[in-house]
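Whiteboard transcription, Tuesday session. T.W. wrote the C-alpha cells on the left side:
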C-alpha cells in the first residue's frame, strides 16, 4: 500500500485571521513532494477525516469546504486553522506536561530531523523528506547528532577494550 502525504500547497496567513488566507505553491520545486508515512499516521488521518465528514454532513452549507485537512471545527467552520492557535495550544499542553514551553510546532521538525539522523537515515534522504535543497540547519542538526553518535561509539569501544583486560 502507498502510504504517502502529498505536499502541494502552502497556506499563507500572516494576520492569523482564518478568513484572510492565501494558498500558494511551496517555496521551491523540491518543497513539492510526497512523504512516506507509517500505517499509524494513515489510520490517525482516516479517523480525523471521519470526524470531519460528520461535521460537514451536520453543518451542510455552513461548512466552508476547501478540503483542508486541519480545518476549524468551531466558529468559521472549515477554514484552515491558523498557526498562532496551534502554537498557543502547544504551549498550553507543554505547560500542563511541565515541559519546555519554548518549543514550537517548528521545533517538532527539528526533532524529526534529529531522530532520523539517530536512526542513521542519510542526510540526502532527510533533506528530501523535509523538502530541502541545501538547508544548512538540516546539515548542522545532522552533523551534531552523527558526531554525538561517533563519540558514543568511541566510548563504547573503549569500555569494551577495558573490560577485556
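and on the right, the sequence the group agreed on:
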Amino acid at each position: 500500500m502507498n502510504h504517502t502525504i502529498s505536499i502541494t500547497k502552502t497556506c499563507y496567513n500572516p494576520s492569523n485571521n482564518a478568513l484572510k488566507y492565501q494558498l500558494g505553491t511551496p517555496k521551491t520545486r523540491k518543497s513539492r513532494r510526497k512523504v512516506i508515512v507509517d500505517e499509524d499516521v494513515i489510520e490517525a488521518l482516516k479517523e480525523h477525516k471521519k470526524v470531519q465528514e460528520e461535521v460537514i454532513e451536520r453543518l451542510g452549507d455552513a461548512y466552508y469546504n476547501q478540503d483542508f485537512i486541519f480545518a476549524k471545527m468551531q466558529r468559521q467552520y472549515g477554514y484552515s486553522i491558523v498557526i498562532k492557535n496551534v502554537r498557543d495550544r502547544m504551549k498550553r499542553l507543554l505547560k500542563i506536561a511541565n515541559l519546555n514551553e519554548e518549543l514550537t510546532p517548528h521545533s517538532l521538525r527539528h526533532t524529526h530531523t534529529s531522530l532520523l539522523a539517530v536512526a542513521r537515515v542519510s542526510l540526502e534522504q532527510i533533506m528530501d523528506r523535509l523538502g530541502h535543497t541545501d538547508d544548512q540547519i538540516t546539515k548542522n542538526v545532522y552533523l551534531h547528532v552523527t558526531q554525538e553518535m561517533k563519540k558514543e561509539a568511541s566510548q563504547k569501544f573503549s569500555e569494551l577494550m577495558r573490560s577485556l583486560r
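Someone added at the bottom: The helical segments are 39-59, 83-96, 105-118, 123-130, 136-163.
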